[in-house]
Amino acid sequence: MTEETTAPLKIVVLVKHVPDVQFDRHIDSDTLRLDRSESVLSELDEYAVEAAVALVEAQGGFAAGHEVIAATMGGKSASNSVKKALQMGASSGIHLNDDALAGSDTVATSKALAALIEHVGAVDLVVTGMSSTDAETSVVPAQLAERLNFAQLTHALAIEFDGASRELTIRRDHAERTLSLAATLPAVLSVTDQANEPRYPNFKAIMAAKKKSITEVSLADISLSATGVGTAGSRTSVLNATARPAREAGTVINDSGQAGIALVDFLAEQKLI
Amino acid sequence: MPSALVFFNELSDVPSKAQRELLTLASRFDQSTLAVASEVSQDAQNILANYGLSKLLVAPSQGDVFVDHALSVLEAAVKQSAAEVVLVANDNFNREVAARLAVRLDGAVVTDAIDVATDLVVTKDELAGSYSAQAQSTGGTLFVSVKPNSIEDDPQSSGQQLEVQTLEIQSPTTAQVRVVATEAKAVSDRPKLTEARVVVAGGRGVNGDFGPVEDLADALAGAVGASRAATDAGWITHDAQIGQTGVTVSPQLFISAGISGAIQQKAGMQTSKCIVAINKDVDAPVFEIADFGIVGDLSKVLPQAAEEIRRRQA
To answer: Rounded to the nearest 10 degrees, what angle do helices B211-219 and B298-313 cross at?
Structure first.
């Protein structure tokens, strides 16, 4: 463990409670909102938690005064995702819990999250996954950089942090190139699944997480009005959402030596060659 | 009718297929402007002239910059063109630029669009293409990132004079992010994965040898893709990864070879028009969504198919 003499880092890692991708997911035809009943921590956010905790461990650990605060917004059950992040090593949690948040688009979501991060105060680094697995827009981290006036270091394939200069460097794909990008904190960092291997919490970590606190806040607590978020605060309105017909299995043949020819026959029939 | 603005961060001598699709989409609108945050060559201008653009705004960057220049250029272009809708490519960089500008200018942003009608109703994919939804702006400029292969490239006029103007950037944003190194990726002669009409993808079943996958892709003039298992194994670069954490493709023909078809993988390819699957395991989930399936050894089936295609085309 390195003994850096850096100022303690205050890191917020954003976690999202999303419908489990292993099950069929549905958009309600009346509310046009996603059915969130079978939800879990978005698996891509595990890379964010890992990145935040690993960064602290490389800078002297939590004993050096660093903090990793797992933050979420959403209904009551969203705190389950914060709990998972605490088991993975985050030091505390905060949950923006308000019914008025439902139906927020990215503009309204980033507004609420930026206000939550400002409420936490003196944050050096915001860490997120590369995308949620439900809406899959992947743009909220960039919008947070815009709102907080933090450097945008998004879609990181690899992460390096220099404690002395407080400079964060990432590698990221951009057009036909891979770039190394650097910025001094504060920054918003979004982490791809290439950046690390998230840890599995062991029994000790699960027990330790039970002693960590999750602060619950409302919109009023962070000085936001209900009309600024949710459907009312969104800049997009959803007109309709229709399930596409499920794909059906076509012919399946066993190769008895001529399947390559049969494949070409099929492509010719479909006018694909 | 509303007016449209198309934004390109970079433009080579020949606009990419995705860029030409955006220009075609913009030509639906009364007025369409193109803003480019890099140099635009004469060759590129000659092609751009075929898309009925009212104006081309150019603002080359000074040196190696990341997102800050693009943000300044697009902000200035939106203000100058007074466009109601801004169209960008659906890659991470462009959608982030669009989304930041939506926040900055109090506009709306929609990603993963497959169509934008002239009444500014956007059609988009939801839940990895298992739903189709329509959305619109509640006010303010509408920023839309459009998936490749959604609009048919259709240049109209030729020889039209293109009005080119250098875009004045009033107060350039101070760069917060520095580019400290740039590495070019290996250039492939194959079509770009996200834009290709045909994709042949290999997974764990290729067992380290992408030769048969590449050979069939070349016989079909297609792109080569891979599952995460194959990229994680280091058999092919990460850029080829199709799925939740890789690229999403929607080609006319997707050939899946030796890929079981886990949910995260299907998320990247299930909107393909036609899916063909080759797998040794009859129970592989990919067969549930394949229009044509072959239970067999890909190292035999793929070369035989490639040879037969070449024979028929000879």
So the answer is: 20
Please identify, in words, the CATH class of the domain defined by B198-313.
alpha beta
In Å, how far is A202's CA from the nearest CA of chain B?
A: 25
Note whether A251 contacts B: Cβ–Cβ < 8 A.
yes
What is the complex's ipTM, to 2 decimals? 0.94
Q: What does the pLDDT look like over A216-233, one tens digit per residue?
A: 999 999 999 999 999 999
Q: Does the global pTM surpass 0.80?
A: yes
Instruction: Determine the Cα–Cα distance for residues A51 and A65; give it in Å rounded to an integer.
Output: 17
Provide the CB-side half-sphere exposure for A102 (13 A, CA): 10
Q: Where are the domains of chain A?
A: 10-248
Residue in A25, A181, A240 nearest the CB of B179: A181
CB B100 to CB A250 under 8 A?
A: no
Is-contact B150 B115, C-beta < 8 A? yes
CB of B158 less than 8 A from some CB of A: no
DSSP state of B247: B
Amino acid B20: pLDDT: 97
**B198-313: same fold as B4-166?**
yes
Please give the average pLDDT of every successive group of 10 residues along chain B, which has 314 residues.
96 96 95 96 94 94 84 95 97 97 98 97 93 95 96 83 88 81 92 96 97 98 97 95 94 97 92 97 96 98 98 94
Pairing of strands B178-184, A67-73: unpaired
B4-166: CATH topology is Rossmann fold (3.40.50)
Closest chain B residue to A107, measured at CA? B103
Q: Do A240 and B133 touch (CB under 8 A)?
A: yes
**B88 three-class SS:** strand
CATH architecture of A10-248: 3-Layer(aba) Sandwich (3.40)
- The verdict on a CB contact (< 8 Å) between B295 and A254 is yes
- pLDDT of res. A219: 97
Q: Please give the mean pLDDT across all residues of chain A.
A: 94
| Chain B contact for A239 (CB, 8 A cutoff) | yes
**Chain A residues within an 8 Å CB radius of B108:** 105, 107, 235-236
Q: Do B245 and A234 touch (CB under 8 A)?
A: no
List, in sequence order, every residue forming a beta bridge with A27; answer none if it has no partner. Answer: A34
